[in-house]
Write a structure and sequence with these properties.
Low-confidence stretches: none
Order of helices and strands: EEEHEHHHHHHEHHEEHHEHEHEEEEE
Number of strands: 14
Distance between the termini: 12 Å
Number of helices: 13
Radius of gyration: 30 Å
Number of domains: 3
Length: about 500
């Protein structure tokens, strides 16, 4: 961790892993710049190189999201006090009932409901993680009781907002928005109660039997409430649960969109590349003209065949010169510009920053010394790559945040960071891998027998990120095979 810059890497599914960076907003400064570099060292026993994987493949397989960090609240703080998210949601509903056609009241109502849902989801996630990191099972149980109590009160208080006098006079669309938030908080609550139940079942403490029963009762009560309210988000046994999953995803997107940052991609350096192409064409034409003029000095007789010959030679020189100079200039331009520039805008279309992205295969001689040291090959890796350069995918991102613009976005909630989420799809590499299943031999009762074995490939990935000229290096090993990503291990690095 560098200051408050954080990263977290998780397996998304069998084909994807996700890296989530959190950058702080330094509101006392005009701009803040972050640089993130990713080095992926491909296994030497995997036939894969830059000819198989180009820039367009990289950007096609990787997905990036960027959003504001959710305001941090402890569970009790969500409903306690006049400045709590619940109190502000109550005030927004009351204002809407008084002036249902006022655009600002409608916007504030939608904003408060969505922010309430986002804050609750984030608070539950943090609380479960905090409880999981408690080593004493008894203390863990005590904290779990407080979490369950707080969550129960939050859900009860939210549902009471439906009974504010005049709420039923609102039109169906506005009442539906409240129902969506009510349904979504129920789904989120159930998900984290199951995670807590799984954690307590792992402890298997007799003293926690009553708590586990209480959590089960709360989950059942949540299901009954959603059923009576007509919400279709109930998980059923012996069902595909297609409706539940679809609706859950849609509600998550609706409620979470309040924190999304809009993006607009631009080809960085495109104008410079076009200018370079024109320069190359101009130089080629100039050289061809010089060749023609020079040849004419030897043509005193004005023979037609000589004119034709020199014109053909000049044309050939021009075409070869244009292609070679074009390649040189374009390569130079691409080495000095990023592939894409992404403009970052808030919900009101105000520019709050920009992000630039670059990707290439890196030659061994270009790998920074500290990154090479972090790679730290063992003897087997060294022997495998003896005489061959290890293929290295290099990706760089430079994010600039305009703190002045961010300062005016949130007036009543403390939003102190931006989350940059990148998902890497590794299926293109898996297609090149051998079948993982192998039959192995061991001694048995009748002399020998076979057992199943599974082959894997190791991808070494090194992250270097930081701000203001300072950076940290983290190393991970991605272990995968044709069946998917098996696990990700963090490898300690000497800084």
């Amino acid at each position: 961790m560098l200051g408050s810059v954080r990263e977290r890497i998780t397996i998304r599914d069998k084909n994807q892993f996700e890296i989530k960076y959190t950058y702080p907003l330094q509101l006392d400064q005009e701009n803040t710049e972050y640089v993130v570099e990713t080095f992926i060292f491909l296994p030497t026993n995997l036939p894969f190189n830059s000819k198989d994987y180009r820039k367009e493949n990289f950007y096609r397989d990787n997905t990036a999201y960027i959003r504001f960090k959710t305001p941090a609240f402890m569970l009790p703080e969500i409903i306690c006090g006049n400045d709590s998210p619940l109190a502000k949601t109550h005030a927004a509903i009351s204002r809407l009932i008084e002036t249902p056609e006022e655009p600002e009241a409608v916007e504030n109502y939608n904003y408060r409901l969505r922010m309430f849902c986002s804050i609750l989801k984030s608070a539950l996630r943090d609380e479960v993680e905090r409880i999981e990191n408690i080593h004493d099972p008894l203390l863990r149980g005590e904290e779990a009781i407080m979490m369950v109590d707080s969550l129960s009160r939050i859900q009860d208080e939210l549902r009471l907002l439906h009974d504010i006098p005049g709420f039923n006079t609102l039109d169906s669309e506005k009442r539906a928005m409240f129902s969506f938030s009510d349904e979504y908080t129920g789904i989120v609550a159930e998900h984290h109660l199951f995670k807590l139940l799984k954690l307590l079942n792992r402890d298997n403490q007799a003293e926690q039997a009553e708590l586990r029963s209480r959590i089960v009762e709360q989950i059942e009560a949540g299901n009954s409430y959603r059923f009576s309210a007509g919400y279709p988000t109930i998980v059923r046994e012996n069902s595909t649960n297609e409706t539940f999953i679809y609706r859950m995803r849609m509600l998550k997107k609706i409620m979470g969109s309040i924190l999304y940052i809009r993006t607009e991609n631009i080809d960085d350096g495109k104008w410079a590349e076009q200018f370079a192409i024109n320069i190359a064409a101009g130089l080629a034409m100039a050289l061809a003209t010089v060749v023609l003029l020079f040849a004419q000095t030897f043509n005193q007789s004005g023979l037609g065949w000589w004119v034709i010959f020199t014109a053909v030679v000049a044309y050939i020189i021009r075409e070869r010169m244009k292609e070679s100079s074009r390649s040189f200039f374009v390569e130079w331009i691409r080495s000095h510009y990023y592939d894409y520039k992404t403009i970052l805008r808030d919900d009101l279309d105000r520019k709050i920053g920009e992000s630039k992205s670059f990707m290439s295969f890196l030659k061994q001689s270009k790998i920074p010394r500290k990154i090479q040291a972090a790679r730290d090959k063992d003897l087997i890796s060294t022997l495998l790559s003896d005489g061959y350069d290890e293929e290295v995918i290099y990706a760089k991102k430079r994010i600039t945040i305009h703190n002045d613009s961010c300062r005016t976005i949130w007036s009543d909630f403390k939003v102190d960071g931006i989350n940059d989420i990148v998902r890497y799809n590794m299926s293109a590499f898996m297609k090149k891998m051998n079948q993982p299943e192998r039959d192995l031999f061991i001694l048995g009762d009748n002399g020998w027998k076979t057992v199943e074995g599974t082959g894997v490939y190791h991808f070494n990935m090194i992250l270097r990120y930081g701000m203001g000229g300072n950076s940290e290096i983290h190393k991970f090993r991605l272990i995968m095979n044709r069946n998917g990503i098996q696990r990700i291990i963090e490898v300690p690095v000497k800084q």
